[in-house]
Design goal:
By secondary structure, the protein is mainly beta. The chain has one domain (about 20-155): Lipocalin (Beta Barrel). It has 2 helices and 9 strands. The radius of gyration is 15 Å and the shape is globular.
């Protein structure tokens, strides 16, 4: 069941976060849909280091309604205490949004990520699939945090280009 997020409540982000291990390509396995990702499949996010130490974020996906690939490039910076899985991400100039890493496996192969509130949630993987046990653990964790996991859109990765 959906639970309203108290504005003073903090997401329980991971400790000992390693930005260098997080870099690289991630496949979006599931998301709570929002307007910038509606009608998208084959969605990926690629994180790389900028010369200034910030993180370059390139999101790309196939809009099956328009029949074209679309993408956006932004940047992320660490937020909060060092080692915490909390970033601020911007795709629109000076406006930054929360990017909270709620869980990541020790090998940085799977991640559960939240935005600023319960309208933003992603399950990511280094592969186009995720093991069932990891999927179930992430769904359970998200549910305990008040997410309505029935709202998740499961992303198709067929016909990757």
């Amino acid at each position: 069941m959906y639970k309203a997020l108290n504005p003073t409540e903090k997401f329980p982000v991971i400790k000992n976060f390693s930005p260098s291990k997080y870099l690289g390509k991630w496949y979006e396995i599931a998301r709570i849909d929002f307007r910038h990702e509606q009608h998208m499949k084959n969605v990926t996010a690629h994180y790389s280091l900028n010369p200034d130490g910030s993180i370059r974020v390139e999101n790309r996906g196939y809009n099956y309604k328009k029949g074209i690939y679309e993408g956006a490039v932004g940047k992320a910076k660490l937020a909060g205490q060092p080692g915490k899985g909390k970033l601020k991400v911007s795709f629109f100039g000076p406006f930054y949004s929360d990017y909270n890493i709620l869980d990541v496996d020790p090998g940085y192969q799977y991640a559960l990520v939240a935005g600023k509130n319960h309208d933003y949630l992603w399950i990511l993987s280094r592969q186009t699939i995720i093991p069932e046990d990891v999927k179930m653990a992430y769904l359970q964790k998200a549910g305990k945090l008040g997410y309505d996991t029935d709202r998740l859109t499961w992303v198709s990765h067929n016909g990757m280009k």
